[in-house]
Amino acid sequence: VTGEDGVKRWEKVAEVNLQDHIKTPVFPEGKSPEFYDRCFQDYFHKISGEKFSEGRPLWEFHLVKYPTLNAAGNVIFKIHHAIGDGYSLMAAMISCFTRSDDPSLPLTFPKNRIRRSSAAHGRAAFLSRALTSAVNTASDMWFSFSKTKFSEDDLSPIRSGDPAVGSRPVSVVTMTFPLDDVKEIKGRLGVTVNDVMTGTIFLGTRLYMQEMDPGSQAAETTAMVLMNTRMLQSYNSIQEMAEPKTTLAWGNHFAFLHITVPKLIGMSDGDELEFVRTTSATIQKKRFSLAISLTAKLLDLYRKLKGHEATASYLYKALKSTSMAVTNMVGPLEQMALADQPVKGMYFVVAGTLHDVFVTIVSYMGQLRVSVVAEKGFIDHDKLKSCIQMAFHHIYESSCH
After folding, report:
1. Residue 318 neighbours by CB under 8 Å, 6+ apart
2. Which of 108, 177, 273, 338 is at 20 to 30 A from 97, Cα to Cα?
3. Under 8 Å between Cβ of 62 and 25
4. Nearest Cα to 111, choosing from 372, 363, 384, 396?
5. CB–CB of 2/10 below 8 Å?
6. What gap in Å lies between CA 297 and CA 250, rounded to an integer?
7. pLDDT (tens digit per residue) in 234-287
């Protein structure tokens, strides 16, 4: 709400009516899973474009009690980003689940192993790393600032440049990749799981651009990579994040980096791995940069000095100047259960942004689950999905056979 001083603030709701937040759609009875799959997709696309009512808390649960091709039923958690970032919302969602095999045991998550440099120890090595960090930080900060303030990506098959893209209908496609296969590529190339998946998405995106418009291969294309600034091994409970003096507070604590998507120009068969190597080198370089933490601190300082609307305007420009966005979350290793019902799979998506393509990744039960939110009528989502899958196949075959 907006107070008398013109400042917008959160207003505590006196009473929450659950009937306003729990939705159960009704479809025709006695139909096939294929029919209900189409109904579910249409329903999902419909609610993804609907705005929340500002007169009540910005969250909804949608219970779809019909068997689709992939599950006996589906639950959609629709939550506004103003409530919290991916870490906060994932922590809230995880708190609703138990382990399917033994509810008395906690869910566990993959360890966040940071690849360490093999450089020699000593004063000279320390000074070298410090200088590298300073140079990379300055370079990354300037690139992000200039991309936000002065330059925009070229228009291309994945960037329409339409300022109204955030309010247009979207479609969502999902795909899964075996984590063991990703780790095999990782081991052969000496990179990380994140490097493999980001390289796959970049290559698939360029293959799609090439198919849709061969001339677009020269287009300057930048991905905004959104990152959680909490470097943690697991999720904290809602109670822990709500404590007054906690350093793990609930809310939006994220930063972003701009990463240039490599081009296909001059690439021959077998060069698919260069996408992974180039991506890995770029990300490794940014690991020796303070740009992520500085961006987060500057956004927080900007919010305190200029206010929420000015910060939102800055983020709007940062989003509008790039072609796509990529983000990822870590999910549990074990199968989860909700109300004693085992959860076969899960995905998360981000809708209503200024990108024609937004890619999200979450790990769950030995699978990496990728979702692509694409603007309807502009992006051929089936072709883009096929290109990303083809990219992974090429990378796997080139690295492992």
Report:
1. 144, 147, 148, 224, 256
2. 177
3. yes
4. 363
5. no
6. 16
7. 677 777 777 777 666 677 766 778 888 988 866 655 578 888 888 888 877 776
